[in-house]
Fold this protein.
Amino acid sequence: MILITGAGGFIGSHVTEELLKKGEKVRAFVHYSSRDITGNLKFIDAQLRKNLEIFPGDLLYLDEVIRAMEDVRAVIHLAARISVNYSYRAAHETVLNNVKMTANILEACRILGINNVVYVSSSEVYGTPKKIPIKLSTPKKAQSPYAASKVATDELARSYALSFGMNIKIARPFNTFGERQSIRAVIPWILYQLLSEDRKVVEIGNTHTRRDFVYVKDTAKFLIKMLELESFKEVNFPTGRPYSIKEVIELAKKTTGIDKEVVVKEERIRPKDSEVEILTGDVEETYSIISLRPKTHFEEGLRNVALWIKNNMHSIKKEHDLL
Ligand SMILES: NC(=O)c1ccc[n+]([C@@H]2O[C@H](COP(=O)([O-])OP(=O)(O)OC[C@H]3O[C@@H](n4cnc5c(N)ncnc54)[C@H](O)[C@@H]3O)[C@@H](O)[C@H]2O)c1
């Protein structure tokens, strides 16, 4: 049995689906509430879900995390407060939540002797690098409370591996995009605004910043591959090809065949010193550690997300109208 935290989220649902396709038994730790708790897991085929066990709970409580780990041989820990923008408003909460959830996962694994943990970090830990491509040796620089929470949890994971000889891996995907992602993320947000008949313009923050976008099915394969490593390792997962937001908008227009005016909105711009200008990594460094590269071309991923948004426009609109 493999335990996935954040399984109802964007990346977690794809990791869960891919593991189920491989015939694995998966326990999905989902955040308990009295309403819809399974999130994106509902998009997984019912036949595949036969090997899926749902564990509703709260990762902030160590006793619940320990209970969730019965008969578990490996853990992929994805759950987190993930928004950089929200972390400006809720800095304290973001840091405390992300550190405590990860501390609970690591401590439960230590107590129970579970010796295969993939902890999911983020390329945001590097901030704007002095030199590109980013490599594992690039110094970390937290430019937002979200990034700080990830730097802290990276070091917590490393410390458990080094202190207790645990097989913990730090997996660092670069910006991930794909079907099921919230429209608060930049790519679905651009495509949604182009595709929605109610919207006349595309509102956006900085358009010069560049990101290394990885398609979610590639990220899912990467996280599963990380389970195979037998000792502590830190691995980045970039494509090596950064796109500016301006380029993304142009490609999104081409993909949808829709052209709208682009309007830069002050409130979507990060504070100047907090803005990360570019994130792009070294794909060959990654390959030398895990013999894996992202496969999906950026434009193919964009087409898939556009189709997903078209097919789910009604529910996405409802979610957006409530925000
Ligand atoms: N999306 C990206 O571009 C990206 C890039 C690099 C790294 N990451 C990392 O990947 C992971 C998953 O990101 P995502 O984009 O799928 O985010 P997401 O918000 O879709 O998923 C996060 C999940 O964590 C769960 N969670 C939060 N608090 C919880 C709690 N107290 N108890 C139980 N569950 C809780 C949420 O319910 C949610 O399902 C995060 O750790 C994120 O930092 C994401």
